Amino acid sequence: MEATDRVFEQLVLDHQDRIYALALALTGNRHDAEDVAQDTFIRAYKAMSTYPPERIRDLKQRAWLHRIAVNVVRNRVRGVRPRLVELNGSEPDHATGPEEDVLRKSEIDELASRVACLPAKYREAVVLRHVQDLSYAEVAEALGQPVGTVKANVHRGLKILRGENNGDRDD
Amino acid sequence: MATVTTDLRRLGEVKAPAGFADRVMAQLGMTDSYALFGTVLGPVFVAWNRRGVSAAMRCETAAEFENWFHENVGRLLVRVEPPADLSARINAQLAGTKRLQFDLRGLSPFAQDVLRKTLQIPRGQVRPYGWVAREIGHPAAVRAVGTALAHNPIPYFIPCHRVIRGDGVIGNYSGGGPEAKKSILTMEGVELPRLQKLAQSGLRYEGVKSTRIFCFPTCYHGRHANPANFVYFHDEAEARLAGYRPCKDCRPAVA
Predict the structure, then answer these.
(1) From the list B7, B13, B76, which residue is nearest A21 (CB)?
(2) Which domain holds residue B76?
(3) Of A20, A38, A158, Cβ closest to residue B14
(4) Assigned domain for B227 exists
(5) Structural domain contains residue B147
(6) What is the domain-level CATH number for residue B123?
(7) Residues in chain A whose beta carbon is closer than 8 A to a beta carbon of chain B?
(8) pLDDT band at A125 (very low <50, low <70, confident <90, very high)
(9) Do B17 and A5 touch (CB under 8 A)?
(10) Are B126 and B82 contained in the same domain?
(11) DSSP state at residue B28
């Protein structure tokens, strides 16, 4: 087995949960989330197989994968509205974990689809900052935007989620 | 105020669905599937991926096969129901009527050369280790050929059983020991008693008087010659001295 393949296999195992959670928050349903997460890793693999070994070794895997995932979502949702309603999940899923005792799967799906209804620029900022828990600097890096813009977008996105968007103009 | 951000954080704790990593690997051809197939050799575990068949072994249990695969190939392995079309192709390969694709990634270039050359040995014939070594351009690497064949991840399919010692000794076999090697060769139509009798007398090559061509004794050519016309040689020099040239098909020596 080639060295790149080994590194990649470990990368998938290390990051699959976080990238899937990111994809779910960005797309709002589990079906698209699986597609996006798979595409993210497939693109990562294709990119990695062109990189020299030093670059693979020094890769900041987490930030890099987030950036790829955001781009995958941007490319695929261009012109496609996220699905608002998810039929009750028949997809295979992990056994109920502790987090799902607190917030049941249906509630997670409901929240994910609410997040997915946010305008893209707010959604990306809110998800990276508050779902994925990246710092503002990391979010700015992943989105290729200034930190100030990210902060403003996070703020506006949260406001909408709290139902306080009355009077908040988008300019 | 805090609830929205708290809920969002919980959204980040969602786990990838079961089998997600395997599906990614499968899309990239990096996971191998395996199943148990009924073949002329009995039940054989066979692993494959998008590039081709990657491993085969007769094992008592699936766990034993998985361990063997893990040690020898190292990729992720997923058990599936045996696909009917693959089953047919596997039996066609073993019957010598069709060629499967093989995935030899992960083996050294030398080992890949050895296995690809071994694939060219026709059913019902055998070649010495030295022949494989010479054919792939490493005539001195006879022992290395033996090692590469001993680690053949796809025995039966890549017919390492068709490579035997120059002195006629059958040699060991990773696919189930010397006895298994003998029975597979016999099943393929190799006349082992004749071969070993020749080898014991030190006779390596078979010539036909009428054509003045010498072959390995299992070569297809000359099989239908009048038995009275057969003549046997100890080595290449003896054959050439007698005015015989090497067969261009089984290539007992460089022509």
Answers:
(1) B13
(2) 20-95
(3) A20
(4) yes
(5) yes
(6) 1.10.10.10
(7) 1-2, 5, 8-9, 12-13, 16-22, 24-25, 30, 34, 37-38, 41-42, 45, 91-94, 97, 99, 102-103, 108, 111-112, 115, 126-127, 130-133, 158, 161-162
(8) very high
(9) no
(10) no
(11) T
Which of B3, B6, B10, B24 to mutate to test binding with chain A, by most A CBs within 10 Å of its CB?
B24
- Residue B161 in tokens: 């059983």
Do B117 and B91 share a domain, yes or no? no
Clarify whether residues B248 and B231 are in a common domain. Answer: yes
Instruction: Return the bridge partners of B128, or none.
Output: B164
Do B131 and B186 share a domain, yes or no? yes
The tokens 């051809």 sit on which residue? B29
> All domains of chain A, ordered by start, with CATH?
1-81 (1.10.1740.10), 118-171 (1.10.10.10)
The answer to whether B86 and B48 have CB atoms below 8 angstroms apart is yes
Question: Which CA distances in Å does B147 have to B54, B103, B128, B141, B181?
Answer: 18, 19, 14, 10, 16
Residue B1 lies in a domain: no
Distances (CA, A) of A137 to A18, A33, A151, B204: 19, 25, 10, 76
pLDDT band at residue B180 using 50, 70 and 90 as cut-offs: confident
What is the number of domains present in chain B? 3
Considering the domain boundaries, does residue B15 fall inside one? Answer: no
β-pairing, B76-79 vs B31-39, is parallel
Q: Which of residues B190, B212, B243 is at a domain's end?
A: B190
ipTM of the shown complex: 0.76
pLDDT tens digit sequence for A71-93: 999 888 655 555 544 444 444 44
Helices (H), chain B: 2-11, 20-27, 62-72, 84-95, 109-119, 129-135, 142-150, 177-187, 192-200, 236-241
Q: What is the pLDDT of residue B37?
A: 94
The count of CB pairs under 8 A between chains A and B is 103
Please say if the pLDDT value at position B238 is more than 70.
Answer: yes
User: Which residues does chain A have within 8 Å of residue B16's beta carbon, measured at their own beta carbons?
Assistant: 16-17, 19-20, 37, 94
B108 with B184, same domain: the answer is yes
